[in-house]
Design goal:
heterodimer; A: alpha/beta; Rossmann fold; seven-stranded mixed sheet; two-stranded antiparallel ribbon; 9 helices; 9 strands; 18% strand; globular; B: alpha/beta; 2 domains; five-stranded mixed sheet; 13 helices; 40% helix; 20% strand
């Protein structure tokens, strides 16, 4: 019998600890499959952020560094500059990359650092229990915007569009994992972001619109619909830079 | 052959000769000659130089590079070192080796750009969050700074700890004739098996991690760090004594102030006052035991801690002397340098 599907060897056997309906697992799988497809086994250093994905250091079957909140692009810079032949990736959430670590991501992108960033945007702080994120939608209720995100609480930061104004980045895309067709597109984008690194093209980032059913107080299906119907209005999918 | 070099540049060259091949920093006076020197020197030796967007980023670049096995350093001055504290705490938790130079300037706040020693507490008591220490040196001449820098990377690797060189504006800016050490063959530096160099997979996978959710595991980490600091106290304490054998008044001073105090010792001796100098070279671990021994001598009557601060190291002197003899303090701040005459006059007035 032929094998049509199996778990990537770039994932360990540690069970994922994400909530039911969370899409971190899907994105982990896409990253792992990509690493396998570009034959990066034994040649990768990954970075786990602070946030729900902190335990990524247990899940990816490669050398991993867990780093301070928001500082992943700085750490990745240190790693990649000293190990230019290794594949280096940072996996970051919205609070990590678009709030506390805004300076680090902007400047790593501006320098055109040759590593890959996977940015999970689920419009909320998941690990700490559902507080307002830099990407929380206007009107969206969180534990720190209980009446809905108002004017004086800031507008959603569109990081991918911001970075697209810079000359440094090579590839910037926003994808979603809200249905199988979009998952396949997300995989393509992630693969391109890693291939760019292999080819020395410089900084690549893929923003993935993701779910947080637990803190959104939704069922997994409702959460996927929220990504499709609400988040994509504020965060349009597409390739923002490709050169 | 001796060469005439500015302190900051000599320190940078000593680092290169010690095998440092990565520098990440951010401009701040009075240490700018360090990043400037590396920016032209690193390309010559195949090393890495990055001017980071902030001190926060610079220390995290150090974290990433050190975690991947590189010999790496950063430098800054007081306000910048404050910004690095988060990263230093993580580096200590992850047990990564690196070297950090602080050319101290007066504070608090933006303070001034002139020399000070007011970062002593921050350097030797932790500085960031959590229970941790660094190995801290307070060199008093450019030659000593060069020699300490040359050894610092080996010490950092041996203990997997950040080593801080606590200088001051004078040490960074002064020019002195120095002997530079030989260039280390970087192939001879022992390989760091624990480092995430990218080759790990499956059983050989390595993880640099400071998150310890289980209390028993975090307790174990803290115990291991404490053992490391005990080991530093046992093996790495360094100090110098000058005319202390029969001294009645013993100055305790480090760095630039120690040189000034030494002149004051000679002047006072000429005037018939038996003065001596105890100079800590390691500020952490602090040379408490030799100070305690001095305080038990019949000849010693009094200790005087001299600092460019409102009195920081003096607390460690008091702890060491443990009430055996009185401990007095003399200091100046704001970037105003103590002169030998200031010390001589203070001693005569207080006598």
């Amino acid at each position: 019998m032929s094998v049509v599907y199996k778990k990537s060897k770039m994932l360990t056997n540690v069970p994922l600890n994400y909530c039911p309906g969370c899409t971190h697992g899907i994105v982990h799988k896409l990253v792992a499959e990509t690493l396998e497809e570009i034959n990066a086994e034994g040649n990768v250093i990954g970075i786990a952020p602070v946030g729900c994905a902190v335990f990524a250091y247990d899940f990816f079957n490669c050398d991993m560094q867990q780093v301070a909140h928001g500082r992943a692009p700085a750490c990745a810079t240190g790693i990649k500059r000293c190990n230019p032949d290794k594949i280096v990736f940072a996996y970051q959430g919205d609070g990590d990359i678009a709030s506390i670590g805004t300076a680090e991501i902007v400047h790593a992108a501006a320098r055109g650092e040759n590593f890959t960033v996977v940015f999970i945007n689920n419009a909320i702080y998941g690990m700490t229990g559902g507080q307002m994120a830099p990407t929380t939608l206007v009107g969206q209720k969180t534990t720190t915007s209980p009446f809905g995100r108002g004017k004086m609480q800031g507008n959603p930061i569109k990081l991918t569009e911001m970075l697209a104004t810079l000359d440094g980045p090579s590839y910037l895309a926003r994808v979603s994992v809200s249905d199988p067709a979009n998952v396949r597109k997300a995989k393509k984008a992630i693969k391109k972001a890693f291939e760019n690194q292999v080819n020395g093209k410089g900084f690549s980032m893929v923003e993935v619109l993701s779910t947080c059913p637990t803190n959104w107080h939704m069922t997994p299906v409702q959460a996927l619909d929220f990504v499709k119907n609400e988040m994509t209005k504020v965060f349009p999918l597409g390739v923002y830079k490709d050169c | 052959m001796k060469v005439l070099m500015k302190g900051n540049e000599a320190i940078a060259e000593a680092a290169v000769r010690a095998g440092c091949r990565a520098f990440f920093g951010y401009p701040i006076t009075p240490q700018n000659e360090i990043p400037e020197y590396f920016s032209r020197r690193m390309p010559e030796v195949g090393g890495v130089f990055v001017q980071a967007e902030s001190e926060v980023s610079a220390i995290n670049m150090v974290y990433g590079a050190a975690g991947s096995g590189a010999r790496v350093m950063t430098s800054s001055s007081s306000p910048g070192i404050s910004l690095k504290q988060e990263g230093i705490s993580y580096i200590c938790a992850a047990e990564l080796p690196c070297v950090i130079v602080n050319m101290v300037r007066g504070g608090p706040g933006l303070g001034g750009i002139l020399p000070a020693q007011s970062d002593y507490f921050q350097a030797v008591k932790g500085g960031g969050h959590g229970d941790y220490r660094m190995l801290v040196y307070g060199p008093s001449t450019v030659q000593e700074a060069v020699d300490i820098m040359y050894e610092a990377f080996d010490k950092a690797d041996k203990y997997r700890i950040p080593v801080m060189i606590l200088g001051d504006g004078v040490l960074g800016q002064i020019m002195e004739a120095i002997e530079l050490p030989e260039m280390v063959d970087i192939q001879t530096i022992p390989k760091k098996e624990w480092a995430t160099d990218g080759t790990g997979v499956g059983e050989s996978r390595r993880v640099i991690n400071t998150l310890k959710i289980k209390p028993e595991v975090l307790e174990e980490v803290n115990n291991r760090l404490a053992d490391k600091y005990k080991s530093l106290s046992k093996h790495e304490v360094r100090y110098e004594q000058y005319r202390t054998e029969d001294a009645e008044i013993i100055f305790v001073a480090y760095g630039t102030v120690a040189r000034i105090s030494k002149s004051a010792v000679d002047t006072l001796r000429d005037k018939g006052i038996k003065a001596g100098l105890f100079r800590p070279i390691t500020l952490y671990p602090f040379p408490s035991d030799p100070l305690l021994s001095l305080s038990k001598l019949r000849s010693s009557k009094k200790f005087l801690a001299i600092e460019l601060s409102m009195g920081q190291m003096v607390e460690d002197v008091r702890l060491a002397v443990n009430g055996n003899k009185p401990v007095d303090f003399f200091g100046k701040v704001g970037g105003i340098i103590i002169t030998p005459d200031d010390i001589v006059n203070y001693v005569i007035k207080e006598k």
